[in-house]
């Protein structure tokens, strides 16, 4: 495929996103910012779930670690953007290295439960370590990131563009990485790990790499969320957030690049819209999930025929017998 | 398969219909109530000339009140009761304040700070509210604090009781009409030493608010000369208190001070009896341990519980009797602590708008006006401290007794007036 | 010594309560390979149906203990036939999403029907008493629950090991195609297994009602805990689930007393250790040849 054509849709998407602050109110801008943050988060999880075939129910751990690390650095050390962002990323990578080391030894349902266990332990730590994390009250009053001594990214529009730039880098970066030979190896592990082993690949090592990418980018999403809200709470580490982001990936479409973005947009908008019309939003959300499984099992990205082939090719195993 | 699909659509249609109905009764409550009151308006004009005096030319204008309250999840019943209290008061003034029509916009707190921030932005950016009220969770109130402050939205906290909100996190735009953990814990700490026990075991749910209340109790109780013989902090939402209760019993205290609310309170009180502590070791705590909405579930297990609170159903003041009558007539159920909080918050907001004659253009002026409000609430004399922005109120002692086979709370005495020290 | 003894009984009774709730989940996952995230929701439905029965018809707890789980079993049949059966071919991840959606739906329906207030399932007087144990007061009903828990475990063991149905089910566990080839209606087997699982969940809900209380949200508290037990015990092993339930119950009880600061870690730490040391759980079967 011609390179220019391949990149074209992404640039159209990013250009369109640039126009949002011009066209819409600050309320819509806020929702758009949240969608982009959760898109980064869902994209990061999709590296594990979609491309490597490892279904994690503990991805909020990295989101939370990134958010708390950035916030604590901003509160106690420096509120410079590069320092808080790098801090969130590096600490998330370190944590995912530790968790990944243990989790990649098991697969299927056991992987799901082990990631859940680790994320809940981190939740317990955050909740318990009140003197540092503020316990269940969370951390508030986090200063907005500073880019230059005199320039602080504090307006809604500037935070949005910061998030948009990071989103663009993540999207295009993943596009390159996942199409590279490295990405092919990950897909190979998803399809048949035994064969990849037989071909001489150290699959455990590749699974850890995949875990590091997912965890690090999850941390970046968390950092973005702390910039956006100026607040973090243990809810950002809780398993319900892990479940929500997994649903974003599934609803959007696994193993596609655009799927998690569509899923994040769909879930955030659905929650916002339904939430302000009825208190029974869980009922509506639940029905939507069920309808998705029955009628659109390949996710939103699977609806278009263009992407059908790739989406259909992905089958994520979750049986214990792997 | 085709048959199946048809079935699902049918199911979906039914669900949507159901939820639409549920929504119809919930979200449009303010409009319904307002419209059903219209015929009454003329009848009441003679009684309320002050309110309707200049209503004629401003009748179309509205003041918008945004309320972020839990309508789903474990705190849903608190949110519902707060809303009922608010709507009862608004109805009593015909949904009029400062000559304008009151519009109440409700958003679900979801017990989630991040979701609440999203709702807050919607209320401010899209609905352009004049004033914000609500939030049950302290974490949510803390999360909103900075944006409330920078966007200069007057915010009357109607429940969340974390101390810092009117101390280190104090804002010119934030006031609190409900309570704080210091008031709840200190009142019992002062009372318990002279009246109940010298040796007390502390048991509180392990979260920030529970810790704050027990800390306040501990300080007041030990300052008075009492001794804490042990402390235990079960996680929030604990299933089983058996091991804690066994531990408490073997420490042989004279009383147990406990801070639990909602389902935790019910489980604790129930299991307290099942493990044979009831009647041997006095159970004392905050009013959420024997609240109106808890006692039906705890049944006779709650007998003998002594608590301090700013209000209870059984208070015999004329203000409270009028409130209880009106509430029971409208909703056919008893008011809870949260109903009173909602009722009082609504009254404060209305009085502020009345004093300003509906002029909400200067947000700072609106906020400052809260410091001047004072009235006799169902809970007693009520005013806000212009210094700390926190409510000044009396705290009372209540004891649960059995009357006609059911538990009731009996008013014992008033501990005194509590004004937060502000630090 | 007495305190340790009574705490041990506390832990065992809590563990057996958890076993009653988790056994159905284990059965369904073991045999059907479906991770039913709505399982705890069925537990909640059971408790609320029992509340309705004791409230509106004859105030008979024992009647509710039988009728409510049967109703939940019936609901399970409908769910299996209309929701799960058409989606088996989509794979496990789809079922996770499907059953999670179902849990959301059931949560709101229960809240809509019974309200958000906490409620309590009343016990008859003859069950509400207390007994002396190790010189301490111990609720009689908890002893009864222990007895019922062991009874359920024994019944499930007999059903699985000694009856024709058990043989079919065990065969289905190791090779679904073969069972189908033998002329046994595997669809029917699945429906029955799901119904039995639902019955057990409902039964656990009724039994737990007088100890834990009822409120919307009670199901999510139990869901995570029962998933932990499922994993620690090992997939597809009723005995493993029983042992894991007892271990979790006892560890949780003593953990609360000895290390109150760590109460949020202990259960998940235990699970992580078990998974790292023995990834198939305590008594899980390693099934080969399918990867």
Automatic annotation (TrEMBL), chain A:
Keywords carried by this UniProt record: Cell membrane, Membrane, Transmembrane, Transmembrane helix
InterPro entries recorded: ABC_transp_permease (IPR001851), LivM-like (IPR043428)
Keyword Protein biosynthesis: no
Membrane topology: Multi-pass membrane protein
Subcellular location: Cell membrane
TM annotation in the entry: 7-29, 35-53, 60-77, 83-102, 109-130, 157-178, 205-225, 245-268, 280-300
Keyword Repeat carried by entry: no
Protein name: Branched-chain amino acid ABC transporter permease
Protein species of origin: Ferviditalea candida
TrEMBL record, chain B:
Region described as Disordered: 29-57
Descriptive protein name: ABC transporter substrate-binding protein
Signal peptide (from-to): 1-22
CDD domains hit by this protein: PBP1_RPA0668_benzoate-like
Species: Ferviditalea candida
Keyword Cell inner membrane attached: no
Bias kind Polar residues: ranges: 42-51
Family: Belongs to the leucine-binding protein family.
Leucine-binding protein domain segment(s): 62-405
InterPro entries for this protein: BCAA_transport, Leu-bd, Peripla_BP_I
Keyword entries, A-Z: Signal
Protein's UniProt keywords contain Signal: yes
From TrEMBL, chain C:
Transmembrane residue ranges: 12-35, 42-58, 64-84, 96-114, 140-159, 222-251, 258-277
Keyword flag Membrane: yes
Pfam families assigned to the protein according to its UniProt record, in alphabetical order: BPD_transp_2
Keyword vocabulary terms for this entry: Amino-acid transport, Cell membrane, Membrane, Transmembrane, Transmembrane helix, Transport
InterPro entries xref list: ABC_transp_permease, BCAA_transport_permease
Signal sequence, start to end: none
Topology within the bilayer: Multi-pass membrane protein
Keyword Membrane: yes
Main location: membrane
Cellular localization per UniProt: Cell membrane
Similarity remark: Belongs to the binding-protein-dependent transport system permease family. LivHM subfamily.
Protein name: Branched-chain amino acid ABC transporter permease
């Amino acid at each position: 495929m011609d390179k220019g054509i391949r990149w074209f849709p992404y640039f159209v998407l990013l250009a369109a996103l640039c126009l949002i602050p011009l066209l819409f109110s600050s309320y819509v801008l806020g929702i758009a910012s949240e969608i982009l943050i959760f898109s980064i988060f869902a994209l990061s999880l999709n590296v594990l779930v979609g491309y490597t075939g490892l279904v994690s129910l503990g991805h909020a751990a990295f989101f939370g670690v990134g958010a708390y690390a950035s916030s604590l650095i901003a509160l106690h050390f420096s509120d410079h953007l590069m320092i808080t962002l790098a801090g969130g990323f590096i600490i998330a990578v370190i944590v995912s290295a530790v968790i990944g080391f243990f989790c990649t030894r098991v697969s299927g349902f056991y992987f799901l439960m082990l990631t859940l266990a680790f994320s809940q332990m981190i939740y317990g730590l955050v909740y318990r370590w009140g003197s540092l994390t503020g316990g269940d009250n969370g951390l508030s009053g986090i200063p907005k990131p500073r880019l230059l001594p005199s320039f602080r990214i504090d307006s809604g529009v500037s935070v949005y563009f910061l998030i948009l730039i990071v989103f663009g880098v993540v999207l295009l970066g993943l596009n390159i990485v996942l199409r590279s030979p490295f990405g092919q190896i990950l897909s190979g592990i998803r399809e048949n790990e035994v064969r990849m082993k037989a071909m001489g690949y150290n699959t455990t090592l590749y699974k850890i790499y995949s875990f590091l990418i997912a965890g690090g980018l999850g941390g970046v999403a968390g950092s973005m969320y702390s910039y956006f809200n100026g607040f973090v709470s243990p809810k950002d580490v809780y398993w319900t957030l892990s479940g929500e982001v997994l649903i974003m990936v599934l609803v959007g479409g696994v193993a596609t690049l655009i799927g998690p973005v569509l899923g994040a947009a769909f879930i955030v908008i659905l929650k916002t819209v339904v939430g302000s019309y009825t208190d029974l939003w869980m009922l509506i959300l639940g029905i939507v999930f069920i309808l998705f499984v029955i009628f659109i099992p390949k996710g939103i990205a699977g609806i278009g025929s263009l992407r059908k082939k790739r989406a259909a090719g992905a089958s994520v195993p979750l049986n214990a017998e792997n | 398969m085709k048959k199946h699909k048809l079935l699902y659509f049918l199911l979906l249609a039914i669900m949507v219909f159901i939820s639409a109905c549920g929504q119809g009764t919930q979200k449009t409550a303010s409009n319904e109530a307002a419209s059903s009151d219209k015929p009454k308006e003329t009848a009441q004009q003679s009684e309320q000339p002050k309110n309707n005096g200049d209503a004629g030319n401003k009748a179309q204008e509205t003041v918008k009140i945004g309320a972020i309250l839990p309508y789903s999840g474990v705190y849903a019943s608190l949110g519902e009761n707060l809303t009922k209290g608010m709507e009862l008061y608004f109805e009593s003034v015909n949904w009029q304040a400062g000559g304008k029509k009151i519009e109440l916009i409700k958003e679900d707190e979801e017990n989630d700070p991040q979701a609440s921030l999203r709702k807050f932005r919607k209320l401010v950016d899209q609905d352009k509210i004049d004033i914000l009220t609500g939030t049950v969770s302290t974490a949510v109130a803390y999360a909103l604090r900075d944006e409330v402050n920078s966007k200069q939205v007057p915010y009357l906290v109607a429940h969340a009781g974390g101390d810092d909100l009117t101390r280190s996190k104090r804002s010119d735009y934030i006031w609190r009409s409900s309570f704080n953990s210091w008031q709840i814990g200190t009142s019992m700490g002062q009372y318990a030493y002279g009246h109940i026990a010298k040796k007390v075991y502390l048991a509180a749910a392990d979260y920030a608010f529970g810790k704050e209340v027990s800390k306040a109790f501990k300080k007041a109780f030990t300052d008075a000369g009492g001794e804490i013989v042990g402390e235990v902090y079960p996680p929030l939402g604990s299933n089983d208190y058996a091991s804690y209760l066994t531990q408490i019993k073997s420490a042989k205290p004279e009383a147990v001070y406990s801070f639990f609310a909602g389902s935790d309170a019910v489980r604790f009180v129930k299991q307290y009896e099942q493990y044979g502590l009831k009647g041997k070791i006095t159970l004392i705590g905050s009013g959420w341990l024997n609240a109106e909405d808890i006692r039906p579930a705890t049944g006779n297990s709650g007998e003998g519980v002594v608590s301090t609170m700013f209000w209870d159903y059984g208070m015999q003041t004329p203000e409270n009797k009028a409130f209880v009558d009106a509430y029971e007539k409208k909703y056919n159920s008893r008011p809870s602590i949260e109903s009173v909080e909602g009722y009082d918050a609504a009254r404060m907001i209305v009085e502020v708008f009345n004093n300003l004659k509906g002029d909400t253009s200067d947000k700072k002026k609106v906020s400052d006006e809260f410091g001047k409000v004072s009235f006799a609430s169902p809970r007693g004399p009520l005013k806000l401290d212009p210094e700390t922005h926190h409510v000044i109120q009396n705290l009372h002692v209540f004891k649960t007794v059995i009357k006609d086979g059911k538990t009731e709370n009996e008013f014992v005495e008033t501990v005194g007036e509590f004004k937060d020290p502000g630090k | 010594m007495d305190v340790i003894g009574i705490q041990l009984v506390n832990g065992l009774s809590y563990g057996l309560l958890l076993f009653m709730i988790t056994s159905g989940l284990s059965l369904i996952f073991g045999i059907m390979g479906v991770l039913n995230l709505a399982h705890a929701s069925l537990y909640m439905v059971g408790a609320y149906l029992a509340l309705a029965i004791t409230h509106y018809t004859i105030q008979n707890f024992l009647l509710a203990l039988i009728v409510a789980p049967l109703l939940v079993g019936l609901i399970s049949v409908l769910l299996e036939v209309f929701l799960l059966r058409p989606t088996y071919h989509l794979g496990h991840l789809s079922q996770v999403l499907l059953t999670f959606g179902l849990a959301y739906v059931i949560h709101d329906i229960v809240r809509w029907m019974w309200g958000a207030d906490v409620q309590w399932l009343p016990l008859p007087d003859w069950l509400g008493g207390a007994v002396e144990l190790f010189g301490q007061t111990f609720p009689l009903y908890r002893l009864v629950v222990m007895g019922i828990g062991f009874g359920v475990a024994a019944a499930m063991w007999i059903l699985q090991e000694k009856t024709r149905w058990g043989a079919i089910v065990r065969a289905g566990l190791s090779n679904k195609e073969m069972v189908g080839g033998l002329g046994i209606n595997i669809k029917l087997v699945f429906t029955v297994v799901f119904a039995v699982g639902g019955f057990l969940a409902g039964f656990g809900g009724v039994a737990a009602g007088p100890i834990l209380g009822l409120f919307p949200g009670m199901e999510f508290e139990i869901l995570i805990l029962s998933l932990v037990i499922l994993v620690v015990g090992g997939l597809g092993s009723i005995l493993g689930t029983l042992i894991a339930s007892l271990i979790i119950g006892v560890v949780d009880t003593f953990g609360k007393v000895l290390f109150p600061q760590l109460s949020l870690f202990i259960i998940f730490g235990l699970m992580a250790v078990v998974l790292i040391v023995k990834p198939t759980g305590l008594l899980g079967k390693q099934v080969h040849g399918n990867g």
